[in-house]
Structures are given as C-alpha cells and as structure tokens.
UniProtKB/TrEMBL annotation:
<dbReference type="InterPro" id="IPR043129">
    <property type="entry name" value="ATPase_NBD"/>
</dbReference>
<keyword id="KW-0408">Iron</keyword>
<keyword id="KW-0808">Transferase</keyword>
<feature type="binding site">
    <location>
        <begin position="134"/>
        <end position="138"/>
    </location>
    <ligand>
        <name>substrate</name>
    </ligand>
</feature>
<dbReference type="InterPro" id="IPR022450">
    <property type="entry name" value="TsaD"/>
</dbReference>
<dbReference type="InterPro" id="IPR017861">
    <property type="entry name" value="KAE1/TsaD"/>
</dbReference>
<dbReference type="GO" id="GO:0005506">
    <property type="term" value="F:iron ion binding"/>
</dbReference>
<dbReference type="InterPro" id="IPR017860">
    <property type="entry name" value="Peptidase_M22_CS"/>
</dbReference>
<feature type="binding site">
    <location>
        <position position="167"/>
    </location>
    <ligand>
        <name>substrate</name>
    </ligand>
</feature>
<keyword id="KW-0963">Cytoplasm</keyword>
<keyword id="KW-0012">Acyltransferase</keyword>
<comment type="similarity">
    <text>Belongs to the KAE1 / TsaD family.</text>
</comment>
<dbReference type="GO" id="GO:0005737">
    <property type="term" value="C:cytoplasm"/>
</dbReference>
<protein>
    <recommendedName>
        <fullName>tRNA N6-adenosine threonylcarbamoyltransferase</fullName>
        <ecNumber>2.3.1.234</ecNumber>
    </recommendedName>
</protein>
<dbReference type="InterPro" id="IPR000905">
    <property type="entry name" value="Gcp-like_dom"/>
</dbReference>
<feature type="domain" description="Gcp-like">
    <location>
        <begin position="24"/>
        <end position="307"/>
    </location>
</feature>
<dbReference type="GO" id="GO:0061711">
    <property type="term" value="F:tRNA N(6)-L-threonylcarbamoyladenine synthase activity"/>
</dbReference>
C-alpha cells in the first residue's frame, strides 16, 4: 500500500509518500516561520494563503522524489483537524479532490494521532501498548495507547500547551517566534540555582497539566531582573527546567498508574534536548524504554499523516467527499 500524506493544520505545509513495504519514500516540508515572525505568532489568513501557494508544487515534488505516479497510490491522507480552519481547508480540499479525481480513497487524520504515531516511522518503533506524552504548540496530553485508534486520554492541559508556554516565555525574553527552540538554546548558557519556577499541579493527584502560571511567573521574574545576557539565560534555564520536571513527574505517575514500561514522547516540544535527556534517565531508572520521532518528525510534517492515514485505511476506514475540516476535534 502506498499513501500520499498532506499536513496543513498550522504554519507548515508537509507532504510525504509512505509505502508499507519500503517505508518513507519522500517527504517535503515548507515552513512559514519567516512569514509569521514579524507578527510574533501565526496569522491564520496568511497561513491559508501560503498553503494554497505551496501545496501543489510540494505534492508534485514529493511524488517525483518517490518515483510515484498517481496510479501507484492507494489513498490520500490529509489532516482533518484540529488546527486553523482556513489552513485545514487547503489540505483537506486538495487531498479529497485529488483522491476523487484519481479514484482512490481519502482519509482524514487527527493531527495529534499523527504526532502520536510519528515514532513508528523509526527503525526502532515502539510496540503497543504504551504511554504517549504529546507536547506541541497547541496541545499537551498523556494518552494510554492500546493500539491504532484505541486511545484513552489520561490527562491534558487545562490552559496553555507546553509549546505555547515556551513560545510565550521566549517572547517575554525578547526572542523571535517560534521561541521554543531559541529559548532552549539560550537555556544552554544558563546556570542552575539562580531561579526556582513552580512545578504546576504536581502537588496534587491527577495527570492534567497547567502551564499558564509559568508564563506569569516568568513575566514577573523578568520584570524584576536585570537584562544582562547571563540573567536572561538563567531565567530560560529555570523555566525549561520547570517544564521538563513537570512533564517528568506526570509521566512517572502515568507509567506507575498503568504499570506500563514504554513511553513515547512526540510533538514539537519532544525535540527539546533537556526533555529527551531527562526522560531517557527516568526510563533507565524505571527499567523501561523511551521512544521519540527523529528531530525532523517531532514538529509538523506530512510523513506522520501519511503513516497514520495508512493505518486507518488498512482498518477499512475512509472519509467521504462531503466531510468537513474539524478545527476542534477531541482525540
Ligand atoms: O508539533 P508542532 O510543530 O506544532 C503543533 O502541532 O503545535 O509544535 C510546535 C511547538 C512550538 O511551540 C515550538 O516552540 C515547540 O514546539 N518546540 C520546542 C522545541 N522545538 C519546537 N519547544 C522547546 N524546545 C524545543 N527544542
Ligand atoms: Zn503539531
């Protein structure tokens, strides 16, 4: 089976061709980061227009790189939601139209299912069941994953997502959008022991997260601090440490609660080196195993959508031409 995958939920146009015998044959990614940087965040209308500009050339390139013609495809997977409505409409309209024209099935994929299954693209893929920590710009959740489509959300953020907290705190530190990776880089220069940020919602039972308080704490800390580069780096360090510790505490709790030994971490924030290092140490201590997507597939991409869509098609599912995009959609 060979699938074309299309991702357009936010500010990345991702297209990929995945084959169940040969694996990933091609993937193309166009990031709109530069377009939105001047505004300090994603401007939905600009995002939609840029997806319109890029999607067809990227599909042509992905097919050519995969030495694939439409007749070789068994289906098209597109991100159906959640995300920005206008952006989702681009990928879903193009995906469903091509599927109709080429007389193959189309399948709408949940963006977070794409992230969740991204580690399956790696040689060392996790076996079911596992606990997944999904940490992106729009979502933070812990999921008990029993198999494809068998997901129980154990906890999620009641306010900001982890990536959003990174981006907002980075903005307060005067860093460009998206600030997560830049804050992580600044934190590398930071020294421990200067600031202590709270670990939100770790002192009570449960697996939900809350990150908006960290941003407020960061705002107050920055207001009261000098703006020497070392001070800024120390604040970045303490913020990152608090987010990573909080995620670690909740993962340990979820693993204990379910008795599981396998942990998957995916979504944009899973690219964070300190998070990866600390989670690796935790899983070693617990005699378990941790799995991540490769860095290219932590943030949004078409490959994860192609993979997830293939699993859905194999299970006999497809999405009718009349189905609409779903900007809000529970996993
Ligand atoms: O999964 P993703 O590409 O998009 C959404 O589905 O939201 O995640 C993007 C998020 C952004 O908030 C970005 O700042 C964050 O992931 N991010 C990071 C790192 N790389 C990306 N956060 C912390 N450290 C990183 N190295
Ligand atoms: Zn994403």
């Amino acid at each position: 089976m060979r699938i074309l995958g299309i991702e357009t939920s936010c500010d990345e146009t991702g297209v990929a061709v995945y084959d169940d015998d040969q694996g990933l044959l091609s993937h193309e990614l166009y990031s709109q980061v530069k377009l939105h940087a001047d505004y300090g965040g994603v401007v939905p209308e600009l995002a939609s227009r840029d997806h319109v500009r890029k999607i067809v050339p990227l599909i042509n390139k992905a097919l050519a790189d995969a030495h694939t013609v439409p007749g070789d495809l068994d289906g098209i997977a597109f991100t159906q939601g959640p995300g920005l409505m206008g952006a989702l409409l681009v990928g879903s309209s193009v995906g469903r139209s091509l599927a109709y024209a080429w007389n193959i099935p189309a399948v709408g994929v949940h963006h977070m299912e794409g992230h969740l299954l991204a580690p399956m693209l790696e040689a060392n893929a996790p076996a079911f069941p596992f606990i997944a920590l999904l940490v992106s710009g729009g979502h933070s959740m812990l999921v008990n994953v029993q198999g494809i489509g068998r997901y129980e959300v154990l906890g999620e953020s009641i306010d900001d997502a982890a990536g959003e907290a990174f981006d907002k705190t980075a903005k307060l530190l005067g860093l460009d959008y998206p600030g997560g990776p830049l804050l992580a880089k600044l934190a590398e220069q930071g020294e421990p022991g200067h600031y202590k940020f709270p670990r939100p919602m770790t002192d009570r039972p449960g697996l939900d997260f809350s990150f908006s308080g960290l941003k407020t704490f960061a705002a107050n800390t920055i207001r009261d601090a000098d703006n020497a580069p070392q001070t800024q780096a120390n604040i970045a360090y303490a913020f990152e440490e608090a987010v990573v510790d909080t995620l670690l505490i909740k993962c340990r709790r979820a693993l204990k609660q379910t008795g599981m030994k396998r942990l998957v971490i995916a979504g944009g924030v899973s690219a964070n080196t300190r998070l990866r290092d600390k989670m690796a140490a935790l899983m070693k201590q617990l005699n378990g195993e941790v799995f991540y997507p490769s860095l290219a597939f932590c943030t949004d991409n078409g490959a994860m959508i192609a993979y997830a869509g293939m699993q859905r098609l194999k299970a006999g599912q497809h999405t009718p031409l009349s189905a609409s995009a779903k900007p809000r959609w529970a996993l």
